[in-house]
């Protein structure tokens, strides 16, 4: 039975002969085959937009049109749900494989991460941002918004790197895209000694900035594999000897400049006690955490995290 359209200021028009006086079939054709909007279909049929929605629902019930999810997309959803159940996380968003790597993969990860992140942002959010090439891709993929009361906080210490994926730049770019307040951490990521770090942490200004870091209710981070090509906030401290030290002690990845083993525990080494920024226990205490990573080399560190 064809649903009756509610009264409209327009007079309902008779469907063309090829639709055999079937308004449902006519609406279905205009919307699905010709790609018109529901408003445009309503104007053509001379009915309300609500009537068009009813017609389209009736078309699906009668089998005039069917909606199918692309197999690749369905598979990604199923994989994501399986990962969520297995590792006890809120959600896992898996992007389809495109046979790419390096910069192209990071670009696609950034686009996906931006879509995941945006619904979680509001004026009351304190967003903590890490650094790295994937975080830069996320920042570049964010559409422009205006959330003035949103606070975007740098959670890793600053570096002397000229690269665009430095902690300061990633934080500033994300804040700029979201029209938000940027709060940088004005302290080096790594100090020359634990004593120097302790002295700097005793400074009231630095203590206030680290209190902001601990106030984050949502963080966006990347995770790095541990090999000779690992990206670090200040490369002068990460020599081949330092990398070998952590590898020999079972480290498989780097998160916020901290080295982790397969269980996610921090591995002690030459840089221990010299770093400034969010610590692993503070990261795990953050209510919401979004990790953005991809590629076969990231499997071990992602699983550890």
Q: H/E element string? A: HHHHHEHEHEHHEEHEEHEH
User: What portion of residues is helical?
Assistant: 40-55%
Shape: elongated
Largest sheet: 5 strands, parallel
Strand content: 5-15%
How much is the average pLDDT? 87
Q: Give start-end ranges of low-pLDDT stretches.
A: 1-9
Please, could you describe this protein's structure?
With 305 residues, the protein is of the alpha/beta class. Helices cover 41% and strands 9% of the residues. It contains 12 helices and 8 strands. It has helices spanning 23-33, 38-45, 49-61, 71-87, 103-117, 133-141, 167-177, 194-201, 204-214, 240-248, 280-285, 299-304; strands spanning 126-129, 151-154, 181-183, 218-221, 224-225, 253-255, 258-260, 288-291. The strands form 2 sheets. A 5-stranded parallel β-sheet has the order 3-2-1-4-8, with helices on both faces. The chain is elongated, with a radius of gyration of 26 Å. The N and C termini lie far apart (56 Å). Residues 1-9 have low confidence and may be disordered.
